Amino acid sequence: MIPQSFIQDLLNRVDIVDVVGKYVQLKKGGANFMGLCPFHNEKSPSFTVSPTKQFYHCFGCSAHGSAIGFLMEYSGQSYPDAVRELAQSVGLSVPEERDRLPPAQRAAEQARSVALSDAMTRATDFYKKQLRGAQTAVQYLKGRGLTGEIAAHFGLGYAPDDWQGLEAVFGSFRDDAIAAPLVESGLLIESADKRDADGKPRRYDRFRDRIMFPIRNTKGAVIGFGGRVIGQGEPKYLNSPETPLFSKGTELYGLFEARHAIREAGYVLVVEGYMDVVALAQLGFANAVATLGTACTTVHVQKLLRQTDAVVFSFDGDAAGRRAARRALEACLPHVADNKTIRFLFLPAEHDPDSYVREQGTDAFAAQVRDAMPLSRFLLQVATEEQDLRQPEGRARAQFEAKPMLQAMPAGGLRLQIVRELADATGTTPAEIEAVCGLGSDASRVGRYAAPRPRARRQAPTALEQRVVQLLMTYPSLAARLDADSRALLLDSERPESEVLAHLVGACEAIEGQANFAAFSEQLAQSPYAEVYAAARAAVLREDIEEDLATLEFDGAVHKLLAEPLRRELEALQTAVIAGTASESDKTRLRWLVSEVQQRRQVGYRAPQEGD
Q: What PROSITE patterns does UniProt report for this protein, alphabetically (predicted)?
């Protein structure tokens, strides 16, 4: 858990113009900077970066956020990773549990990480240079239909058929200081039982005579390699081992290169091999990525759904492809949502995506993608296939197969629809399916089969209250203009609509005007009223209001808000007097209200003055 105080300090130190400017070409336009939005296609710039608010906003697609949000949206990083990258850029250390190490140990670990990253970068450059003179490798790639441009885009290289090829870059492998980061990064293999004459373990290149596919993380740094044999040989693909930089279960090949195409296409295509990714990019499907010789994991799915709301998995139609699809289905289930689309494409057994596009054409493959099987249908197919649904045993077995999959899904509309279809297929009711599958004990059940969860009474802010929220978010210091009487009326806990204002005023006072707009917005985004604040933030980003004008508008809006409950009470008491039901205390209160409302109309809202 990263403290909010650290987030505020971090966003006060970074300049969002510098952060965004690394990825987007920005030009000064008035008080802000403008550029082409990186999150959707546009020909004229509608993407603005505000150095005063430290926020970006696109008037075309409504994307907006702080420097942290930009890194998450642009690179697909998680919140902690984006915070760490920003912190590193300004020399801060993120205060997390794992960072509570002695300074010397922390420095040693950082130096080790830098050494590993440097080794991967230098090896990448070496392999790329070797490819230029390796005619056999070049002819192989040309034979697969690849151009030099696409090879350069993915940074393809060639590992020469040499046991000590990397010595040309790093120096002798007999030097322990040189060899250590190369062994740890997976570039070298260190033999445990074979030693040189001086007793040192024998060290040699892991990758030899292979096409090299650099694997990048979401920042674009090379963290591992996949090597494909050119002729005959085993294994066909050789991957980097697990290292401090690289974990097969969390990384996806081609995700860094595909991030823009994914946004343009509106979906990501997950295939099974490196060459499929590169070849598809050559053929017009640059939104493809691949798992790294391992089954799809839940972490893979999380990364993909950060990039897009639509994922299409492509598998061979044979038994191995069906098994891989089943594992992908299981990885997806915890992350399904009613606003996400996950589909499964099964090509004929004789084809992979590359061969299918070359034989049938891009239009035919695009049609296959559009017609891919929805997750719901695949789940039901997995549960019911090979079951004789005419017999009680077959129907019971289908429910048994579906049970762990349904339990893995979060409650929501999609799970409800699958439950209904399974009930129809097995001759039962949705309520019985929920009981058999153990869904009824979950307090988060939805639909008419579940009892509604009790909710605290909450009412959306009125238009006037929304405006006060916007002004306070822009200038938190305005909260100090509320005197005790105003607070008692405006932030009355008996008025459900005052919840947001009460929370916001407290937040404004807590920061004491020290946080900038971006830092303050990040803090509010973690609150129970995040949706209200998000809507207000979008409105704030569309205007530039000077503090003097904001102060006048704030005073007037508060005046109206304070007068409204008094006016309603006055009308109610006047009605009671006319009806003859008012008590003496009611009449006394009525006389005070008449005087108070009249006075407020005459003098308006009085802001507290110095010395009050």
A: TOPRIM
